[in-house]
User: Fold this.
Amino acid sequence: MYNTRKITDDLYWVGASDRRLALFENVYPIPDGISYNSYLLMDEKTVLIDTVDNAIGERFFENVGHVLGGRKLDYIIVNHVEPDHSATLQHTLTLYPEAEVVCSAKAKLMLSQFFTCASNLCFHEMAEGDVLSTGRHELTFFGAPMVHWPEVMFTFDTTDGTLFSADAFGTFGALSGNIFADEVDFENKWMDSARRYYANIVGKYGPQVTKVLRTAADLAIRRICPLHGPVWRENIDLYIDKYTKWASYTPEEPSVLIIYGSIYGHTQNAADIVAAELAERGVRDIAEYDVSVTDASYIVAEAFRRSHIVIASATYNNEIFTKMEQALLELSEHALQNRTVAVIENGSWAPQAGKKIRAMLEGMKNITVLDETVTIKSALKDEQRAQLTAVADAVAASVSAMMKE
Ligand SMILES: Cc1cc2nc3c(=O)[nH]c(=O)nc-3n(C[C@H](O)[C@H](O)[C@H](O)COP(=O)(O)O)c2cc1C
Ligand SMILES: [Fe+2]
Ligand SMILES: [Fe+2]
Assistant:
């Protein structure tokens, strides 16, 4: 049976959530599920804004049918072609064959790659700033290339100040009745998921996100309707401020992430000691992860949040410990920059991890590697305590210098 929510007098949420999917994009763990949002505007013309993933197709079709209440569907706006949204487009068009598809030129091309029916469709190709009038509402279109794919556009309803932002401002996490960010404790219960979603899904495209944020700054936005997660209608600046930081690779706060790759536990021992020494020096809210245990998507998100990273790794077949190498590759591929890093290595016969980690960091933008370092040969020796203390001293001093800025 249908399960919709009203956003304004003539705008409805017609999406649904999936709590079964283990891996979003077959990569990212989503223990709290995910929502696929779609919106239906009931103006003189009826307008569906994006469709949904196949997983929730049945519910979605019921929702659309219920809100339309027998009216025909005039337009389907495709802001983003990725199949977590467009998978149900073909079937939607068989239910509403008169609907005309509104999308960017690139989206039209991509739809023809995904769907055989695309050649028979009536398309309205929208360029930057084009306007579609649907009666009371005027919808303006803006390109948002690479947020998250090249064909993405935003739709702005100038009449009501509603921004349909595609994947931008989305988050992992199923919606549990409350579809508005002001109906949930977003800062405490959702922000970590939102950051992990941002960093992993669009983190690489900071300059493109920054560009679209500049366009958005000129719009009188009263609400944001993303394709995943809650709708924003209050305190929008809080979220825009986070996006501005994430997009410019600016740490949210001076704080430390410690990641270690350890087989027998001696490298972990060093990481734990540095953590405790940092705490003794007043560093608060330290985050420490074993790269073999914690999925890289969480580490990428923590790295986007924090200003300093301590990397401790065993040597493995003359390389960085594999799981650490993968985690660092993820940081590099998501274009992490502007961080201060300390490196600790371990090896029983020819420690190489430190040198190779530094080489990877050199390939990233504006990463400051501290001189203080520790090379462990198997287990820590008493005299190495001073070296670990020196690492903690240098990191803590750098954190507190940043706090004074
Ligand atoms: C499969 C394998 C490959 C390794 N390759 C190297 C190596 O190339 N060079 C080296 O110095 N140590 C190598 N080691 C040894 C570990 O780096 C070393 O024992 C280290 O102290 C382990 O730290 P941990 O106690 O944190 O696991 C290797 C260990 C394993 C299991
Ligand atoms: Fe996407
Ligand atoms: Fe998406």
About this structure: Residues 257-399 form a domain with the Rossmann fold fold (CATH 3.40.50.360). The mean pLDDT is 97.
